[in-house]
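Let's practice the habit of predicting before peeking. Look at the sequence and jot down your guess about where helices and strands might fall. Then scroll down.
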Amino acid sequence: MPRLERIGEFELIARYFAPLAQGFAGAGGLKSDNAFLPADPRHDLVVKTDTVVAGVHFLADEAPGIVAAKALRVCLSDLAAGGATPFTYQLSLALPQGWTERWVAAFARGLLADQRRFGIVLSGGDTVQTPGPLTVTITAFGHVPPGRGLDRAGARAGDRLWVSGTIGDSALGLLAARRKISSRFLEDRYRRPQPRMSLGPRLLGIATATADVSDGLLADAGHIAEASGISVVIDRERVPLSAAARRVLAQKPGLWTAVLGGGDDYELVMVVPLRKVEALQKAARLARVPVTEIGRCEHGQGVRLTLAGKPIVAKQLGYAHF
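Done guessing? Here is the structure:
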């Protein structure tokens, strides 16, 4: 049997955990970030759990308010990708030895600020002490109209690929946080992701497949391609960049690898049929979130990257836990 570190995250899930979800349609074979549970005649319940660990998902000495914001927002980003409106969450907090009440108070203030911002409230959880690093697990709950939740599996050849916001800011921001480059804007984008909650629910009836950009643009587009049984083509020159990212890439073009594969952007990647493009643009205006067409879906499999119409090799598809 292969050692766990030799198995990728998605292979690990498919091999050992997806069989445990057989017979429950709402789990979607564990191929989506969200589970969809029947709730009442007017709603499906959308459930997402995420864990962030000090030294892995955020800097080990990060401020408690920023840890709180990141832990909650990464979950909210998945709800947005599912088209869900959030309403409550549960928190499991594993505090390292040496924790202080002052740290916990600042962490709670950070959660409260985001609760007010995103319209969500805590409903329970667990708190323990651990000999390991600080670990925060959040399970967030949202709702969608019955049977209308969005996942990765609906893309078809001929559909167009779009993304919200700008790509690569967080991967470059991690470099800024580690003082390898200088940019306060990029550093903030890494530390405080902006889940697209105003756009997600407006994608219902418009997008055929969605994902949030957590593992990296190429990786998350690849998840859509695999789940939908199609191929995705991304035109690199159309990938939207912030002014700060453009300045960094002008000096260090080798960082394109991080931009496309670094992850943690928490933007939405969306597949939209041509007949729905106008509706998408209207939804984006109402949400006040910019969207950009970056590619298309074709028959085949996997993700292909092009530059000026010619195929190029992607050195890194995305972040992998294993």
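How did you do? Residues 31-144 form a domain with the 60s Ribosomal Protein L30; Chain: A; fold (CATH 3.30.1330.10).
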